[in-house]
Write a structure and sequence with these properties.
126 residues; mainly alpha; two-stranded antiparallel ribbon; 46% helix; globular
């Protein structure tokens, strides 16, 4: 199985499980565990708008909470954009090995590709 196909199928399966009517959470508020704004490594208005739009349209509050905390996590915590000799570069932390594996880095930014057309900063990052 190709890596892309696996990631897409795993994402769909996970989303399906989370959106089922059998939620593990009770009716209560969910804590925000996202990195605070001043500590985020990268921010994108387009991504923030997508989070707001998703939360507005989804009925399952647990899923809305999960999306808010998980979707922007790579941008918040693992990307380090920089410019060297007038070229944009991005270092992506890919795990416990301090190496930039193209496969792992690509997989981490893959969810943001559809948003690149609307955000120049995101284009430069990716």
């Amino acid at each position: 199985m190709k890596r892309r196909t696996f990631i897409q199928n795993a994402s769909l399966l996970t989303a399906g499980a989370l959106t089922s009517k059998f939620s593990f959470a009770q009716e209560h508020s969910f804590p925000t565990v996202r990195t605070s704004k001043e500590k985020r490594l990268f921010s994108s208005k387009v991504i923030e708008d997508a989070i707001v739009e998703f939360q507005k349209n989804v009925k399952n509050k647990e899923l809305a909470w999960l999306f808010n905390n998980c979707f922007p996590n790579t941008l918040d915590t693992t990307v380090f954009p920089y410019v060297q000799k007038r070229r944009n570069y991005t270092y992506v932390i890919t795990g416990d090995i301090d190496a930039m594996w193209l496969r792992d880095s690509s997989a981490q930014v893959w969810p943001y590709l559809p948003f690149m057309k609307k955000d120049k900063k995101l284009q430069d990052l990716i």
